[in-house]
Structure formats: structure tokens, C-alpha cells
Amino acid sequence: MDYQAELAVVRELCVEHLGEHVGSQLAVLAKPGFMVDAVGEGESAAGRSRFGGPALLEPGTAWPECEGVPLSLFAVLDMEALGPWLGEEPHGGVGLLNLFFLYPEAGDAWEVFGRVDLDDPRLCGVLAAAPARAVEVPAPAGAAVFDSVPMYAEPMVTLPDPWDDVISRLDPGPDHAGTLYEDVPNMLIQDRFGSVWQEHSAIEGTLLAGQAFGWPNMLSNGPSPAKGERAESRHLLQLSSNELWNWSEGGWLHFMIPVTALRDGDLSGAWTYFDGV
């Protein structure tokens, strides 16, 4: 799949439904991402990317914890396989990215949730490993252990949610002067393009389907969780409730990270966001 060709398709779609003035503004916000899912028949895993299983860490790397309780390994992203599609979009360099979270149903984790804020960065961890030095590290006692499932990654072009803050800064132009759309561009995008984009970008998957990188695909159709000091954050991975794990009321969990840290290869600032139904 050619990214520039896909961008051209997205731009044509934006302009067709929103007009040149607004459509071209939305199109330039596009970012590369992936639909990720369990490998199906006739599909290949994205390198060593997978859901669950043991972590892939360099020898001597400490397993992440929060207040003495071990986090659980949810996914490994193989950036040697995923990086080429992302191009210049910051993604933490080449290597293996291990994504951990304090799963509420594991060991003493629930007690920790009663003492810390849900946006506390200690609840998650992203650890990188050089592929040549990475070894399988089983989870310690107290962490959840999920079946290892090879990950398929389908390249895609993503756009921000219609209610994302970045959409509110679009210029509706003279065609919408004096209308509600002039003050709330988000409603213009939602009304004229929301269902069109959902239909265009929908990719069928199993219950493990999620998204890596790109603009967050928001289940609750709300603004991006990246605000304040985290406003310039990038999306790493969205995990849906599925047959391996479950979030409150069937929601999603998003892994985010400040873009400056990601460009510098500093993964310590990663944070998570619960996206409810």
C-alpha cells in the first residue's frame, strides 16, 4: 500500500463532502496508523508484534511496577516492521516496544487503584528493547498473564475525531458565515463527514481488533484526552475489551505519550486513558 496514494484518496473524500476550503484543511491533518488484530487465515504477523505473552526485554531490564505491584504485559510492537509505514511520524525509533498496564483484576492491583489517580503515569509502562538482545521474560507473580497472540497490522490513514480540539481550530470559511458551523466547526465535520469517514475507514476485525499510532479512534466520540501538559501527545495503541481482557463496561484503553519525549526516545512519559461507552 502506498501512503501518498492513500492520502490522495482521503483528500478527495474530504473535499467531496466538505468543499475545498474546509476539506483541504482536514486532509492535511491525516496521520498514518494501523488496525491491529489477531493474525487471521492468510495473514502474517507484523514481525514480532503480538498481544499478551511474555515480555521481550533486554537482559537486566526491571519489570515495571506501581507501588510495588507488577504491571501486566498487554502488547509488543515491532517497530522494524511498523516503522516504514509511519515515515516521519514520531514512533520511538526501531526496536521492540513493550506496553504494560496495571490490570485491575490482577493480584493486588485493585487496591492500588484506590490510592492513585487514573491518569497517574505509573499505571503504565513502555519499555524498548533492541531486537538482537531481546529475550522472553515471563511475568512475575501478581501480574496478569495473557495468551500470546501474534499481531496482524493493516496500514491505514487516520483523521482526528470530529470533536477533537484540533477540529475546533479549522476555518469554516465564508460559506458558513452566520451559521452554527462558524462557531462550532466540529459540528460541520460531524454532520457532513462523520458517517462518511466511519464507513470509509471501517476495517472488520475480531474481538481483539484495536489501533496502533495515528489519531485516536474514540469510542465515546469525544475530544482527545491529550490536554494541558499532555496536549502534544501521540497515540501508541488502543486496546478494546475482548476475550483476553476487559475494561469497564466494554470500553477501550489508550496508550499515549508526549511527542517531544517520543522524538527523543524517552518512553518514561507514557500515560493511559480509559475510553468508555
Could you please describe the fold and organization of this structure?
This protein has 277 residues and is an alpha+beta fold. The protein has a single domain, classed as Hypothetical protein YwqG fold (Roll). The protein contains six helices and 14 strands. A ten-stranded antiparallel beta sheet has the order 8-7-6-2-10-1-11-12-13-14. A two-stranded antiparallel ribbon has the order 3-9. Strands 4-5 form a two-stranded antiparallel ribbon. β4 and β5 form a beta hairpin.
Distance between the termini: 32 Å
Strand content: 25-35%
Q: Are there runs of 5+ residues with pLDDT below 50, and where?
A: none
Strand element count: 14
- Chain-averaged pLDDT: 88
The helix fraction, in percent, is: 10-25%
Which architecture name does CATH use? Roll
Whole-angstrom Rg = 19 Å
Q: Which word captures the global form?
A: globular
Q: Which helices and strands, and how do they pair?
A:
Layout: H1 3-27, E1 31-38, E2 50-51, E3 55-57, E4 65-66, E5 69-70, E6 72-78, H2 79-86, E7 96-101, H3 109-113, E8 124-129, E9 135-137, E10 149-158, H4 180-183, H5 185-201, E11 210-213, E12 233-240, E13 252-258, H6 259-263, E14 271-275
Antiparallel strand pairs: 1-10, 1-11, 2-6, 2-10, 3-9, 4-5, 6-7, 7-8, 11-12, 12-13, 13-14
